[in-house]
Write a structure and sequence with these properties.
Blueprint: H1 8-24, H2 30-61, H3 65-99, E1 103-105, H4 112-126, E2 133-135, E3 149-156, E4 163-170, E5 177-180, E6 187-190, H5 191-198, E7 207-218, H6 232-243, E8 248-254, H7 259-269, E9 276-279, H8 291-294, H9 319-325, E10 328-332, H10 338-349, E11 353-360, H11 368-378, E12 382-387, H12 395-408, E13 411-413, E14 420-421, E15 425-432, E16 435-443, E17 455-462, H13 465-480, E18 491-493, H14 497-513, E19 519-524, H15 530-541, E20 545-550, E21 567-572, E22 577-578, E23 581-585, E24 593-597, H16 603-607, E25 609-615, H17 619-635, E26 640-643, E27 649-651, H18 662-673
Helix pairs in contact: 1-2, 1-3, 2-3, 4-5, 10-11, 11-12, 14-15
Length: 694
C-alpha cells in the first residue's frame, strides 16, 4: 500500500495561510499584525522563487499532464492566498489603523493639501532618482530585476497620435512608505502612489494615458556545478549576478491595468496568463512592514523584553570553568545569546586557547562572532571557519565574511562538495595543565545575535570528552573531506543521521510491540522525509504515542486508520519563530534519549547537507526538558493548531490565543528563573517571526 502523505507544496501554502491568520487575529497588537502580513507576503515571494519555479521547470521538461494540472492547482491556491492577504489589509488592518488615528491613503485619497506638499518633494527627493525606459524598436524590453518595483506608463504623442510605452524603475534605495502632513493631518501613502501622481513630469510633450505599478518574480535557485567550478566563491558570485536574469515565474500588477497592456507585458516577459496576478491593493505587501518603525506606538506592539541570564552565566569570566564542571543549556530567545558570543570572544583573548573552529551559515550584518574570530586570528590562534557560501539569500553576506576572515589570517573552508554545511558547532581547544582540552558549543540556530532574539533555539555548552571528540571529528570531516567517519554520540548527516533516527523510532515500535512503555516527541520545522514518515506510521500502528510539533511543512497524515491513529501533529506560531529541533525517545528500560540539532526531517537535511544532532547526556538537563519545555508545549496550547486528516488545521483551544500560550509561558518562566536579568531599560525585541520554512 502507498504511504499516505500530504503534498509538500500544498502543505507549504497551508503554513503561510496560518501566518496570515496571525495578521487577521484581532487579539494581537495591531502593528504586529501588520508585521505578520508583511511576513506572509515575503514567504509567498520565496515560494514562487523556489518552489513554483521548480514546478515550472518540471512542467517544461515533462509531457505528463499531471505536472501541468498540479502547477495549475498550486497557482490557484496561491491566488486565493494573495486575495486573502489583500482582504486582510483592506478589510481588517486598514480600518483598525484608522480607529487608532493612523491614516493610510490610496492614490485617489491624496487630497489637494497632500498633493501640494508632495509636489516639491517629488521634484527634489524622487524625480532625480527616476530613469524612464522607453520601449520601441530601438529600445528593446529591459531586463527587470527580481522583485523590483516598476511602473508601466502608457503614453500618447499628440503630434501623430502614436501610442508609446515606457517602464519606470523605482529605485530600491527610496523608502516605499512615505509620511504626509503634520500632527492630526499626518498620514501615510506608498511611494508608487506618489510617483504615479507626478509621473507625467518624466514625459514632457507626451500625454499620459495611464500608469500601473508591477513587479516580477524570478527563479532564484542557485545552480553551481562544483566539479566544474575552479573557485567556488567566484562561481557563486557569478551565479548571483545571473539571478536577475532568472526565468520569470510571476507577474504582479495593479488590478485596473487594461487587459491588452497586461497581455503585452506578459508576452514581453515570456509568461502565460495563468502566472499573472492582478493586485487590488499594494503590489508588495512586504513593504508595509516599514510602517512599524514609522509609527511611535509601543502600545500597538508586543511588550519589549530582555532575555534572562541564568545565574550560572552571570560571571562571564567563569564561563569555561563552569562548562568544565557540567553541561550548560540555554533556551533562546527567552535566555540570552550573550554567553554564546562570550564563549567565542573569551577564547579569542585567552592565552590558553590554541584553536577555534566554527561553522558559519547565517549571521548578522555587524556580527560580534565574526569580529571575535578575526581578533582570535590576529592574536595568533588557529582559527578555522566553515563558511557556507550557498546559504539561500545570504550568499553575498557570507562571501564578504569569508574574505574578511581570510584577510585577518583565519583558515576559511567552504565545506564538502555538493553539500551545504548547515550544522551549528563551535570547538575551542585549550591547553590546561600540559594537556589539550576541548570545549564545544552545539546549537539548533545560527551564530546570529539578532535572530537569537526572535527565534526559539537551544544552545548546549559541553566539555564532555566523548562528545567533544566527536565534534573534533566533525570538523576534520569538513576540512579534510574524510569519507567514512564513525561518530559515537553525534548523529551526522549525510553519514548516519537518517538511519539512526529511523532506528530510534523503530526501537520504540519494538518496545510497544513487546508491551513496554514507548513514546516519541519530535519538534521540527518541517517533516517531509518518506522513510521517517513510514517509520512513524509503523510506530503508531504498534501503539506508540507520537507527539509531533511541526511548525511548517508536514507531509505526514494524522488520523489515518491503522496507520497514524496514535500520532498528533501541532503547529505553534506566534511572536517568535519556532526554529528549535528537539527529539525525545522514551527508551524503555533505560534513560530517555533527548536529542537536539540543526536538522529537520527532510531529504535535503539527511542527504544534501552536513547536519549535527547531539544528545543531552546530563540527567539534570533531560529533566529540565521534560518538566519545563515538553510540559509547556503540552499544556499551553493557546498558540497552537492541530493538523487534521484532510490537511486543515484547527485551534487546539476553542478560544485560541486568549487561552494560555506556550511562548508566553516560556517568557514568564525565564523571568522567574533569573529575575535580576530583566532589570534595566527596555530594549527592542520584536519578532520577524514565522518566516519561511528553512
Amino acid at each position: 500500500m502507498d504511504t499516505p502523505m500530504f503534498n509538500r507544496e500544498l502543505s507549504w501554502l497551508s503554513f503561510d495561510r496560518r501566518v496570515l491568520e496571525l495578521a487577521e487575529d484581532e487579539t494581537l497588537p495591531l502593528l504586529e499584525r501588520v508585521r505578520f502580513l508583511s511576513i506572509a507576503s515575503s514567504n509567498l515571494d520565496e515560494f514562487f522563487e523556489i518552489r513554483v519555479a521548480g514546478i515550472m521547470q518540471q512542467e517544461e521538461s515533462s509531457s505528463h499532464p499531471a505536472t501541468r494540472e498540479f502547477l495549475q492547482e498550486v497557482l490557484g491556491k496561491a491566488r486565493l492566498l494573495v486575495e486573502a492577504e489583500q482582504a486582510c489589509w483592506k478589510r481588517s488592518l486598514l480600518p483598525a489603523l484608522i480607529a487608532q488615528g493612523i491614516s493610510f491613503k490610496s492614490r485617489e485619497q491624496l487630497d489637494e493639501f497632500d498633493r501640494a506638499e508632495l509636489s516639491p518633494r517629488f521634484d527634489t527627493e524622487i524625480l532625480p532618482a527616476l530613469t524612464p525606459l522607453a520601449i520601441d524598436p530601438s529600445h528593446p524590453f529591459p531586463v527587470l530585476t527580481n522583485k523590483g518595483l516598476y511602473l508601466l506608463a502608457l503614453l500618447r504623442d499628440p503630434t501623430d497620435g502614436e501610442i508609446r510605452r515606457a517602464v519606470v524603475p523605482v529605485p530600491r534605495v527610496l523608502a516605499r512608505v512615505l509620511a504626509v502632513g503634520q500632527a492630526e493631518r499626518r498620514s501615510f501613502t506608498l511611494l508608487s502612489h506618489v510617483v504615479q501622481l507626478f509621473i507625467h513630469r518624466l514625459f514632457p510633450g507626451l500625454e499620459l494615458q495611464g500608469s500601473w505599478a508591477f513587479r516580477i518574480t524570478r527563479n532564484s535557485d542557485l545552480y553551481v556545478d562544483e566539479e566544474e567550478a575552479g573557485n567556488l566563491l567566484e562561481a557563486i558570485e557569478e551565479e548571483i549576478r545571473n539571478l536577475r536574469k532568472g526565468a520569470p515565474v510571476r507577474l504582479e500588477i495593479e488590478a485596473d491595468v487594461p487587459e491588452g497592456e497586461m497581455l503585452w507585458l506578459l508576452k514581453s516577459l515570456g509568461l502565460s496568463a495563468e502566472n499573472a496576478f492582478r493586485i487590488d491593493g499594494p503590489v508588495n505587501l512586504l513593504r508595509l512592514g516599514s510602517l512599524i518603525d514609522m509609527i511611535p506606538r509601543p502600545d500597538l506592539l508586543f511588550p519589549t523584553f530582555i532575555p534572562a541570564l541564568p545565574p550560572e552565566f552571570a560571571d562571564p569570566t567563569k564561563l569555561y570553568s563552569r562548562i568544565a564542571q557540567q553541561d550548560l543549556l540555554l533556551h533562546h530567545p527567552y535566555e540570552s545569546f550573550t554567553p554564546v558570543v562570550e564563549f567565542i570572544r573569551q577564547a579569542a583573548r585567552d592565552d590558553a586557547v590554541v584553536a577555534i573552529k566554527l561553522t558559519l551559515y547565517r549571521t548578522s550584518g555587524d556580527s560580534p562572532v565574526v569580529e571575535a574570530l578575526k581578533e582570535a586570528a590576529r592574536n595568533g590562534k588557529q582559527v578555522t571557519a566553515l563558511v557556507e557560501l550557498r546559504a539561500r539569500f545570504d550568499e553575498l553576506n557570507n562571501i564578504e565574511w569569508a574574505r574578511q576572515l581570510e584577510e585577518a589570517g583565519a583558515h576559511v573552508v567552504y565545506g564538502l562538495s555538493g553539500l551545504k554545511t548547515h550544522c551549528k558547532a563551535c570547538l575551542v581547544v585549550r591547553q590546561e595543565k600540559g594537556v589539550l582540552r576541548r570545549y564545544a558549543h552545539l546549537g539548533t540556530g545560527n551564530y546570529n545575535p539578532k535572530t537569537a532574539r526572535i527565534y526559539t533555539d537551544f544552545s548546549l555548552f559541553t566539555a564532555d570528552e566523548e562528545v567533544t571528540a566527536d565534534v573534533g571529528l566533525l570538523f576534520n570531516v569538513l576540512t579534510g573531506n574524510l569519507s567514512r567517519p564513525k561518530f559515537k554520540h553525534l548523529l551526522i548527516a549525510p553519514f548516519d543521521l537518517s538511519r539512526r533516527i529511523v532506528d530510534l523510532i523503530d526501537a520504540e515500535t519494538s518496545a510497544a510491540a513487546a508491551g513496554r512503555t514507548a513514546g516519541i516527541f519530535a519538534k521540527v520545522n518541517s517533516l517531509v522525509d518518506p522513510d521517517v514518515i513510514k517509520a512513524l506510521y509503523r510506530a503508531s500502528s504498534a501503539g506508540v504515542k507520537v507527539e509531533l510539533v511541526v511548525r511548517g511543512i508536514c507531509c505526514l497524515k494524522p488520523g489515518v486508520p491503522g496507520k497514524s491513529d496514535n500520532i498528533r501533529v501541532r503547529s505553534f506560531l506566534g511572536r517568535f519563530l519556532e526554529h528549535s529541533r528537539l527529539f525525545r525517545f522514551e527508551n524503555s528500560g533505560g534513560d530517555s534519549i533527548v536529542l537536539m540539532g540543526s536538522a529537520d526531517w527532510m531529504p535535503r537535511n539527511f542527504l544534501r547537507r552536513v547536519e549535527c544532532v547531539f544528545p543531552l547526556r546530563s540527567k539534570s538537563l533531560r529533566k529540565r526538558i521534560d518538566t519545563e519545555i515538553l510540559a509547556i508545549y503540552s499544556e499551553r496550547t493557546g498558540d497552537a493548531k492541530e493538523l487534521q486528516g484532510d490537511g486543515s488545521y484547527l485551534p487546539c483551544q476553542p478560544n485560541g490565543r486568549q487561552a494560555a500560550c506556550a511562548q508566553d509561558a516560556f517568557l514568564s518562566l525565564s523571568r522567574r528563573l533569573a529575575p535580576e536579568s530583566i532589570i534595566g531599560p527596555p530594549k527592542k525585541a520584536r519578532g520577524r517571526s514565522v518566516r519561511r520554512p528553512r
